[in-house]
Amino acid sequence: MPKKSFPLSKVYRLLEPGPVVLVTTARKGRANIMAMSWHTMLEFEPPLVGCVISNRNYSFDILNASKECVINIPTVALAKKVVDCGNSSGRKVDKFKKFSLTPMAASYVQAPLIDECYANLECKVADTKMVNKYNFFVLEVVKAWIDPMQKHPQTIHHQGRGVFAVDGETIRLPSKMK
Amino acid sequence: MPKKSFPLSKVYRLLEPGPVVLVTTARKGRANIMAMSWHTMLEFEPPLVGCVISNRNYSFDILNASKECVINIPTVALAKKVVDCGNSSGRKVDKFKKFSLTPMAASYVQAPLIDECYANLECKVADTKMVNKYNFFVLEVVKAWIDPMQKHPQTIHHQGRGVFAVDGETIRLPSKMK
Questions:
Q1: Which of 55-74 (B) contact A at CB < 8 A?
Q2: Nearest CA to CA, how far is A13 from chain B (Å)?
Q3: Spatial CA neighbour of A39 closest among A111, A116, A121
Q4: What is the CA angle A54-A58-A60, rounded to 5?
Q5: With an 8 Å Cβ cutoff, are B170 and A165 in contact?
Q6: Looking at the domain assignment, is residue A104 inside a domain?
Q7: Which of B10, B23, B134 to mutate to test the interface with A (most CBs of A within 10 A)?
Q8: How far apart are CA B137 and CA A43, in angstroms?
Q9: Of A29, A152, B94, B136, which has the highest C-beta tally within 10 A?
Q10: B165 touches chain A (CB under 8 A)
Q11: Distance CA A34, CA B66 (A)
Q12: pLDDT in tens, A64-83
């Protein structure tokens, strides 16, 4: 799907609501995908994201070596594939092929965008000081993409063991908050 | 409302979906509340939570001094009060009084639970190494409470500027994920 550039100053609006995301990494021309819910914004601009990628995951080694990844944000339409990605390891399968997901070239990183996701954030590792103790990477988002056709993307929020809350109604309250 | 104890091993199920939370702190008998969306699980058990509390917030100084807080999880019924808490400072107002929220004594920390929230996590600061650079506190959840009457609490997810996605449908997919 054709994506348009999304301002870095607004990236927090995509991640602050806590959606499940798919993280893509690549090494030597081979790409991988992992499902992730343990992430938080750390700074508005340039957008910094903190996330836990366990050293038991195949993606940990690739991220540690390549220092690049893409955070792809799926909607509920991809829920089954998100679980499939979470339940398998890139050590054994090519998840793009096995789950019929489409890799698209990114602009600033080697890792591919997942075309089916409504937003894609190209990231470079900015700080590894917390990796040893917490498997916690600080990422800087260097480029963001969004599908302009999806006005109300319904993201999903993992509650454990394959149970997800799907975004429902949107409410708007007068606020001075960013 | 009467709360029951909630197992620490399952706390990730409450925070992993990324709800807006209300953080309570206390110093010298005076309690404060702040709204927060920038948090992530860091470890399952004992449950560790990482969160950004800006040094521009009144709560920053209290947390830094007291090393204790409570993470209170509101449902959509409290959305207006969440925004009210986010749009005011404890330097100027007593938010419990002004917004008619009920403080309840916690078991292990000085900060109060907010009675109206469906879950409450008593926390101690476990690591301050990332506070200087990122305003990022590592908290250990030492006690968790939940309202057993709320079987399907609808949490809210901030998308910026007072817009929130409310939990809608819940889906359950076969999964090996925790």
A1: none
A2: 5
A3: A121
A4: 45
A5: yes
A6: yes
A7: B134
A8: 14
A9: B136
A10: yes
A11: 38
A12: 999 999 999 999 999 999 99
CB contact residues (below 8 A), chain A span 105-124, against chain B: none
Neighbours of B129 (CB within 10 A): 13
**Partners of residue B86 in chain A, C-beta under 8 Å:** 175-177
Is A176 within a domain? no
- Residue B173 falls inside a structural domain: no
Chain centroid offset of residue B147 CA: 15
Q: Is B174 on the interface with A (CB under 8 A)?
A: yes
- Name every chain A residue with its beta carbon within 8 A of the beta carbon of B118: none
Average pLDDT, chain A: 97
Would residue A174 count as lying in a domain?
Answer: no
% of chain A residues with pLDDT over 90:
96
CB A37 within 8 A of CB A76: no
Measure A34 CA to nearest chain B CA, in Å: 12
Question: What residues does B138 pair with on adjacent strands?
Answer: B50, B127
Query: Chain A to chain B, count of Cβ pairs less than 8 Å apart?
Result: 184
Residue-number span of the structural domain to which B42 is assigned:
4-166
The overall pTM is greater than 0.90: yes
DSSP H stretches of helix in chain A: 12-15, 58-66, 79-86, 95-98, 131-134
pLDDT digits (tens, 9 = 90+) for B12-54: 999 999 999 999 999 988 999 999 999 999 999 999 999 999 9
Output the domain CATH number for residue B64.
2.30.110.10
Q: What is the pLDDT of residues B63-101, one digit of tens each?
A: 999 999 999 999 999 999 999 999 999 999 999 999 999
CB-closest option in A18, A76, A161 to B18: A18
Q: Which of B38, B49, B50 is nearest to A18 (CA)?
A: B38
